[in-house]
# Entry
Amino acid sequence: MKRRSTRRRTHRQRAVWADPRAMRCAAAERAQLAKRSRRVHDQWAALQHACPDRGSRLRLSRLIHRLMSDDRGVRESAVAELELATLLIRSGFGIRFLPESQARTADLECRMGSERLFVEVTALVGTGRHLDLEATRRKSSDDPEDETIGQGLIERLVARVAQKAKQLADYTAPVVLALTVPPPDPTLRLGEQAVDLKRLVGTMTLLLLSLRHVTAVVIALWSVQGMPMTSGVRLSNVHLVERSVHQAAYPRIRLLVTNPAAAAPLDERQLAALKGLL
# Structure
């Protein structure tokens, strides 16, 4: 049985390397992973200098161990934390990594002048296959206004915000939840997926109205394409940046959804800085 398995694997490998297109795709994937690894290393090194306090150094050393984990969810969560911390510093915030505790506090304390806010970072993995099925259904659908497109992703994002909000209910300063949907596992060879952005921001805004202690949500979607917004109506609490598929070093979509009913709203400088990191 083992010999047959080895023969089948060898046959598949030969088939891949006999296909020039497959060879180019595999080479591109390796190059992309190498660039991402270098970027994450550079971010970690820069944060070591920018955050010299003992608590931040301890948290950064633990992030290194998480980056080497066999669990993809643990790795992607660590990557998301490093990337967002780097963006916050570039946007003008002074940051401090908060210690991990059983009380489940936020990940980052961010200061701008005398004002501060807290940020909780999380990554959603394991959505690739579900979204791929939705993309297949979309291709077979004749309705460009199909509201089910990307609904699975929207439900996961909303559920994660509701879950994370429970652990942050005791904060009196502004609280920002940052969610990342990272690139899919390259071994799955999944294409870019689609989501109805109008439905996403509308659903997220309705949820935030019931979570007054959550000030805003920042969402980064790496391999997700936004469906065209046919309606001219735009929500004033939503800020969105979309990039082309050729800008692979950045998420395709970044969103900032502020809570109109927030108990601790962002001030003008904080809002401008968060919009700038998009």
User: Anything to note?
Assistant: The chain has one domain: 33-276. The longest strand covers residues 115-123. Residues 127-142 have pLDDT under 50 and may be disordered. The chain is about 45% helix and 15% strand.
